[in-house]
Structures are given as structure tokens and as C-alpha cells.
């Protein structure tokens, strides 16, 4: 028996601090700091933590085998399988088809649009991982808002929030639930009241949370959500780009004459881009690099005033009189929509890169006009600007390029493509496979790991997911994040750090009843989630909660559920939960918008969740 366990059984005194605890606490604090400052991507931080735990094994109690055990953990593999299944559903366009029905139901009424968004994002999130649901519905909801003359800002935060509360309906709604189930199963040998979650273990509680959250958003939340973007604005005005886009004509003696666009741009150090070339034959846009410039050509250039003036003086260009570049003016003749927004998800290979280092223009035949980072706009020196997760790029491209970008997992297209390449004929098969995965796990014929892996095989054999798409379907940053942090949770238990923290928190029982301590754990977990990720908070907080429950005479399983639900409930920041980050740029939100809308919801759901747990399971 471990010393901390013996102390726990012989009395309620707080355990003595050991060197192992000190080291694990130091690693945890450093981990929190790296997550908060984003010095490294979260998955890289987790990997570093794993390596440090192994190196300091004599004090952390983590052997090399335990250090890498996260990669073979059943929760990690199940999450991987569920990501592939979600990608398969996405390939069929099933969610987008639901979105089309949502649009026909909602029309132009804002209340109906909001209600449809909550229903069509929340309910499917209980069966399909909620992050892909939001990624698939961003363009649907954005188009719905614009068609109904509603600000996209009014619908996108509700889209994220609905997916979060919807993910609490079942075991597979979010990776957080799967990780919580795995951690709880590991502790079950020591605490008999604990067990691995079943498919619908907490659906009753999840339904309460979903209803309370929906009512809040439809009433109070709706009034608190700001209208950051106007549906009536030209997209260039929305990005405040009009002063940066100007038409210039190439004089006969210009240094640009007879050069290609690429050569002309390469020979100047000025921060300028050629967005469009216009001559008698028509308009030319990306790819522009190989077009040779002629006298009399009209170039639409992106540059600020001082850069434009210097360009005209040195290169022989003249302003086109009385010109104003609009979204309509930038449209290529008979080619359809050409200005679109691309959201950069956390799993994109472009994160931490620049447009220059990724050769974005040449690689995608597209030109970036501006970058939105929440409410911040970047319109200058974009080639050297490091791309961050959650950024939204305003891109100009031909329709063929846009359709290719829509199918590239490095981006989330914020508008529906006009010619999506979906495998709609596979929708019935995909739905049947998902229902089979859920059904077989629910009745206990197989566990969720087995059914999820079998579902992946079924999707490959039926052609829903092609073999060469398999690895691209997985968000590897999520997998490395989970695998790297699982050993930290083990170290918390092994060294007695969890016991110590649990004992400290349990002292609140001196002036609070058990249900009050349960609520305290819910609040603490939400604060931890706001700093680190939802997966990290559930890994670290469940062992602590179980220790505290034992000390105050509470039900450990009730405390596990409180931590699980709290870890999926970071409504107050755009960084604590991935779906919040995905809508950050497309909604044009400020960081504080999430606190204004989410803090009251956080408080309401903390009360609803704790009371629901007490009513269903007891405390």
C-alpha cells in the first residue's frame, strides 16, 4: 500500500509534501504556463511533458513503458477511430445536407435560425465528435446568416456552445468523455464505486444540461451576443480593405512592361501584391504569376498609401481616375464567387508557418488579401506573419481553386462551395455504420474501442473513406496531446500529488456540505480548462476529485461526473475548447465576448449540473 493511501485511511490529515510531489507539481505548473503562453503548440508541450516525466522517473514514478502508455491507451485509440468515422461522415456531405434542411426551416427569421443552429449542432454532436460537427457547419451557418440578413456573429458562438453541450449527451460526443472514462476505469481497482462509462451512462444528465443551455442561449444569451459583423457589408469593407486596394494603369515606359507579374513583384522590396489584371480580353486572377504585363494593363494592387505612392514614382504606374475596388469588381467574369474566408484549425500544417514559407500563392493558386485574428485585422506584411490556429484568411481565387481548398483539411471554408465533391450516395452506409458503432457498444455486445475500430474498417471497405485519406482524417495534434498528458495523470496518482491536492480541497467540507464541495470542484475544473485544454483538465482533476470525495464521505463517481462535465464546459474563452476557437475568426469576436456570453452560462450550468448529479446519483 502506498504511503499516501495509508495516511488517507488512518486519518484526514493532509499528507506530507515529498520530493516526488514537488517535482510533479513543478512539471504541472510549467505545463500550465506553456499552455497559457502558447510557447509551443499544445501537442508539442504534451510531448515534452511526457519526455520530462520519463527522464525524472526516479521521482515521478514513471517508467519508459508507462511514459509512452498514452499512445496505446484505449481512450487515445478510440478517439483516433472516432475522428476517422467523423471524417467519413463529412466526406458524404450528410451534415451539410442537414444544414440545407436547417436553412429551409429557418428562413430569414433570426429566432428560427438560432433555434435551428442549436438543434442541428447539438443533437448530432452526441453521436459524432463535436469538433468536426462545428467545422462542417461553419459554412452552413454563415451562409444561413447572410441569406437571412442576420449577423454571422449572432449564430456562430451559439453553434460552438450547442456542440459543447450536445457532446455531453453520450460517451462518444467528445474526446473528453472518452478520456474521463479511461481514467475512471484505471482508478476502479482502488475505488469500487468507480467503473468505465457506458454509452448512455450520463445521457439523462446531459439532456438536462442541453435543455438548460439551449433555453439560456435562446433568451439571455441571445441578447448578450454582440453583432460584430454586418451581413450587409461588402466583404472588403468588413475587412477594412477598401483603402488598401487600388487600380493603377501601366504606363508605356513602366519598368513592369514585358515582365511577368512574378518578376515584377520579386524585383521590388515593397509590401505590395497584384490581386487582378484587367485588359481588353477580360479579367485575370490567380494564377497571375506567369502573365506578362503590357502597356495599358490595369492592375488591382494591395498596398497602403505610402507604398502605393512609392510604387507609382519608381515603377511608372498611374492611378485610374475615380476608381473604387469592390467585391463585385474583383469577380472574374462568369466564374462565380471568388472571395472566401478560410479558417485555420489547430490541426492545420500551416500553423506557426508563414504564407511565404508555405508558398501559399503558388501551392493553392490563391491570394491572401487579409488575415482576421478575432477582432484584429492584419493587412500588411502578411507574407512574414506567422499563422496561428483560429486565424481566418480572406482569400481571392478562382472557383476551381476554392473547391480544392474546400476539400483540403488544412482549412475550413467559411462559405459553402458551389460545387462540393461529396459522396452523397454513401450517406445511408455512413449513417448505418455510425448507428452500428453506437448500438453495439450501447447493448454491451462489444466495447466502444472494438466497435469504433470495426466502424473504421467498414468505412474503408465501403469506400466512404479511401485508404489514402485515412491518415489525413486524424487530428494528430489531439492524439499527441492525449498521449503526452496521460502519464502526467499517472504521476499525480503515483507520487501522491493528487491525494495532497484532494486533501486540501476537502478542507472546504469544514464549512460546506458535500454538494458544496462538488460545486467547488466543478468551478475549479472550469478554471483549469480555461488555462489548459479540456483533455488536460480531465486527466489531472479526476484523480484529485476522487481523493477529495473519499475524504469528505462523498460518492467518487458523482465527483468524476462533475469534473467530466466541467471539462467540456469552457464557455468563457476562445482557447479553452477547440470549437470556440474555430468560430473566433469567422464571427469577428473579441476575446471578451466569450466571457460576456459564457460566464453567466457557466454559472447556470454549474448549478444545473451539480443539482442534476445530486438528484440522479446522490452525493
TrEMBL record:
GO terms for cellular component: plasma membrane. Residues 233-317, 325-411 form the RCK C-terminal domain. Keywords: Membrane, Repeat, Transmembrane, Transmembrane helix, Transport. PROSITE patterns: NA_SULFATE (PS01271), RCK_C (PS51202). It comes from the Archaea. One of its GO terms (molecular function) is monoatomic cation transmembrane transporter activity. GO terms for biological process: potassium ion transport. The keyword Transcription regulation does not apply. InterPro entries: Cit_transptr-like_dom, DASS-Related_Transporters, Na/sul_symport_CS, RCK_C, RCK_C_sf. Gene3D superfamilies: Regulator of K+ conductance, C-terminal domain. The keyword Ribosomal protein does not apply. It holds the Pfam family TrkA_C. The chain crosses the membrane at residues 17-37, 44-63, 75-95, 155-179, 199-218, 429-462, 474-492, 499-521, 527-546, 558-577, 597-617. It is a multi-pass membrane protein. It is found in: Membrane. PANTHER family: BASIC AMINO ACID ANTIPORTER YFCC-RELATED. This is SLC13 family permease. It comes from Haladaptatus pallidirubidus. The lineage of its organism: Archaea, Methanobacteriati, Methanobacteriota, Stenosarchaea group, Halobacteria.
Amino acid at each position: 500500500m502506498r504511503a499516501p493511501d495509508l495516511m488517507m485511511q488512518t486519518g484526514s490529515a493532509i499528507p506530507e509534501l515529498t520530493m516526488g510531489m514537488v517535482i510533479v507539481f513543478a512539471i504541472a505548473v510549467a505545463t500550465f504556463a506553456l499552455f497559457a503562453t502558447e510557447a509551443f503548440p499544445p501537442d508539442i508541450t504534451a510531448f515534452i511533458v511526457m519526455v520530462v516525466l520519463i527522464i525524472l522517473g526516479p521521482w515521478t514514478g514513471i517508467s519508459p513503458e508507462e511514459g509512452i502508455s498514452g499512445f496505446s491507451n484505449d481512450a487515445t485509440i478510440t478517439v483516433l477511430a472516432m475522428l476517422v468515422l467523423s471524417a467519413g461522415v463529412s466526406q458524404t456531405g450528410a451534415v451539410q445536407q442537414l444544414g440545407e434542411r436547417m436553412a429551409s426551416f429557418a428562413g430569414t427569421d433570426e429566432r428560427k435560425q438560432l433555434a435551428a443552429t442549436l438543434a442541428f449542432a447539438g443533437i448530432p454532436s452526441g453521436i459524432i465528435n463535436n469538433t468536426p460537427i462545428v467545422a462542417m457547419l461553419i459554412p452552413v451557418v454563415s451562409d444561413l446568416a447572410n441569406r437571412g440578413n442576420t449577423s454571422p456573429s449572432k449564430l456562430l458562438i451559439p453553434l460552438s456552445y450547442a456542440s459543447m453541450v450536445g457532446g455531453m449527451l453520450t460517451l462518444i460526443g467528445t474526446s473528453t468523455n472518452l478520456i474521463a472514462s479511461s481514467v475512471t476505469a484505471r482508478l476502479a481497482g482502488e475505488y469500487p464505486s468507480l467503473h468505465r462509462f457506458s454509452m448512455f451512462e450520463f445521457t439523462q444528465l446531459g439532456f438536462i444540461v442541453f435543455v438548460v443551455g439551449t433555453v439560456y442561449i435562446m433568451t439571455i444569451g441571445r441578447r448578450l451576443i454582440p453583432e460584430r459583423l454586418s451581413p450587409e457589408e461588402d466583404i472588403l469593407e468588413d475587412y477594412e480593405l477598401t483603402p488598401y486596394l487600388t487600380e493603377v494603369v501601366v504606363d508605356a515606359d513602366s519598368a513592369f512592361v514585358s515582365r511577368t507579374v512574378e518578376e515584377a513583384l520579386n524585383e521590388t522590396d515593397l509590401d505590395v501584391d497584384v490581386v487582378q489584371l484587367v485588359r481588353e480580353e477580360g479579367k485575370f486572377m490567380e494564377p497571375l504569376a506567369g502573365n506578362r504585363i503590357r502597356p495599358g494593363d490595369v492592375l488591382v494592387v494591395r498596398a497602403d498609401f505610402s507604398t502605393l505612392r512609392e510604387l507609382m514614382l519608381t515603377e511608372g504606374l498611374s492611378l485610374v481616375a475615380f476608381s473604387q475596388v469592390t467585391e463585385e469588381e474583383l469577380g472574374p467574369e462568369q466564374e462565380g464567387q471568388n472571395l472566401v474566408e478560410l479558417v485555420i484549425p489547430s490541426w492545420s500544417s500551416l500553423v506557426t508557418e508563414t504564407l511565404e514559407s508555405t508558398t501559399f500563392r503558388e501551392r493553392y493558386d490563391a491570394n491572401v488579401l487579409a488575415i482576421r485574428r478575432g477582432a484584429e485585422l492584419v493587412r500588411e506584411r502578411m507574407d512574414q506573419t506567422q499563422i496561428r490556429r483560429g486565424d481566418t484568411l480572406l482569400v481571392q481565387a478562382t472557383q476551381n481553386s476554392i473547391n480544392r481548398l474546400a476539400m483540403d483539411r488544412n482549412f475550413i471554408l467559411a462559405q459553402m462551395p458551389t460545387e462540393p465533391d461529396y459522396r452523397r450516395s454513401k450517406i445511408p452506409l455512413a449513417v448505418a455504420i455510425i448507428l452500428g458503432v453506437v448500438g453495439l457498444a450501447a447493448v454491451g455486445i462489444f466495447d466502444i474501442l472494438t466497435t469504433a475500430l470495426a466502424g473504421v474498417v467498414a468505412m474503408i471497405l465501403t469506400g466512404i473513406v479511401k485508404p489514402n485519406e485515412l491518415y489525413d482524417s486524424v487530428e494528430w495534434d489531439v492524439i499527441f496531446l492525449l498521449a503526452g498528458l496521460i502519464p502526467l495523470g499517472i504521476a499525480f496518482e503515483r507520487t501522491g500529488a493528487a491525494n495532497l491536492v484532494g486533501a486540501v480541497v476537502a478542507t472546504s467540507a469544514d464549512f460546506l456540505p458535500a454538494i458544496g464541495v462538488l460545486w467547488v470542484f466543478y468551478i475549479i475544473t472550469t478554471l483549469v480548462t480555461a488555462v489548459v485544454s479540456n483533455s488536460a483538465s480531465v486527466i489531472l482533476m479526476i484523480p484529485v476529485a476522487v481523493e477529495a470525495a473519499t475524504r469528505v464521505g462523498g460518492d467518487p463517481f458523482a465527483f468524476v461526473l462533475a469534473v467530466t462535465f466541467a471539462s467540456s464546459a469552457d464557455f468563457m474563452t476562445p482557447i479553452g475548447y477547440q470549437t470556440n476557437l474555430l468560430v473566433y475568426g469567422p464571427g469577428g469576436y473579441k476575446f471578451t465576448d466569450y466571457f460576456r456570453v459564457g460566464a453567466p452560462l457557466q454559472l447556470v450550468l454549474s448549478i444545473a449540473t451539480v443539482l442534476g448529479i445530486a438528484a440522479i446519483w446522490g452525493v
